[in-house]
Structure formats: C-alpha cells, structure tokens
Amino acid sequence: MLQVNDLDVFYGDAQALWEVSITVGSGEVVSIVGPNGAGKSTLVNSIMGILRPRRGRIVLDDQVMTGIPGHRVCRAGVAIVPEGRRLFSAMSVEGNLDLGAFNRDAREHHSESLQWVHTLFPRLAERRDQLAGNLSGGEQQMLAIGRALMAQPRVLLMDEPSLGLAPVVVDEVFDVIEAVRGQGVGVLLVEQNVQRALDVSSRAYLLSEGRVVMEGDAAGMANNPDLRRSVLGI
C-alpha cells in the first residue's frame, strides 16, 4: 500500500536521510526503530508532506505522494499522530475531533468515525465538552489518536505515541494499535519503547544515522544483538 523508495531528505545543506526505502501493507503494523537522531521523525514528516524530499518517491497504492502538501496527503488516505500531540488546547475535545474529519470523504462518515473513536476511548465521550488543554497527558494522547482516526486513514503514522505516558495508558494505546490494524489500516509506528513496538509489529526497520541498516521480521529483530546495541546500548 505505502511505498517509500530511495528517499533522500535534507535540512538545508545537511542530509538527514540517505536512500531510505520502506513498505507498509494494509492491516500491517511496521515499526521504525533506532537511536535518537537517527531520522525516524524526519521520515514520518516526509511521508506526511511536512518535509519535501530532495530525491526518491513516496507512493500510496498507485498515487505518487512525493512532495505534495500535508492536506493532500491526508485527503489521499494518510493521517498522523504527531510527537507532542499538537492539539488545539483552547478548543473542546469534540472540536479537535471534528477537525480530524475536515476533508470531504471523512465528513461524509463523521458520525460512524466518531462512534468508533468513542468506542476506543470512552473518556473522550465523557469529556467531549472539556477543553483539550485541561486533559491529562494520557487523555491528550487519546485525543490525538482519535483526531487522526476521524480522517478515516488507510495508513496511520504514529510518532512516539507512548512517550511520557503512565504504563496503564501505554497498554491502552497499544491495544488501540491492534484494533486499528484489525480494521485493515496500515500503521507505521515510530516508538521509543522498542520491545513493545516489536511485539505489536509484523516487520521492522532499524534506522541509524539516516540510513536503513537492518530490516526484517519483528520477532527475529527483537533478539538481534546488533539492534540491541544500536538502540539500547546493550
């Protein structure tokens, strides 16, 4: 479904990604792991149209996505749960969710999407009129995920979804990742909790200094000593 081929990305004259290639299939969770500064968020932001690659191709099904702006990427079927959540704190929970369904196709399915989000996160239904900025950190992450799902994505990009959350909320987030996969949505997961990420994934890529240095079955990579040294320092 989603194919990234030989992607080179720069910040000014400084190259951040070198010939990165990945794929994500329908109903598949794929993890991108690696040490801090490896280029994981750069890759996600390039797919989402926030950064413009200098070389390479990004293709969703048969549609070339390389370099198109973020709103068109979302309209084509890709949504993001960004690192840091980036909610509209002065808007209500319901208002933030409504913004996730801004494109025409998503608006047509607003009611069923909202019902699904409320099923996944009942607390968002209970707090629909509360300001997003007054939610707990875990509730804000639920809202960020729910907002992305309101767009009815075919591919969901998740950048550090468990960062800073209590263990019980982390469990809930990973349960939702499983539920999303069960709906046939492809998930590209960038996650600092490497073991949890690999447990929920079918495949994984190890990024180091902007390059893919390892890829394969997630279960096999979980015990790979090179990955443990690179990511965990073990």
Total helix count?
11
At the fourth CATH level, what is the homologous superfamily of the largest domain? Answer: P-loop containing nucleotide triphosphate hydrolases
What shape does the CA trace take?
A: globular
Strand content: 25-35%
Q: Trace the largest sheet across and list its strands.
A: 6-7-8-3-9-10
Query: Spans of 5+ residues with little confidence (pLDDT < 50)?
Result: none
State the CATH architecture of the largest domain.
3-Layer(aba) Sandwich
N-C termini distance: 35 Å
When the domains are counted, the total is: 2
Series of secondary-structure elements, N-terminal to C-terminal: EEEHEEHEHHHHHEHEHEEHH
For the largest beta-sheet, the strand count, sense and barrel status come to:
6 strands, mixed
What is the residue-averaged pLDDT? 90
Helix content: 25-40%
Find the count of extended strands (DSSP E, 2+ residues).
10
What structural class do the secondary elements suggest? alpha/beta
Radius of gyration from CA coordinates:
17 Å
CATH class of the largest domain: Alpha Beta
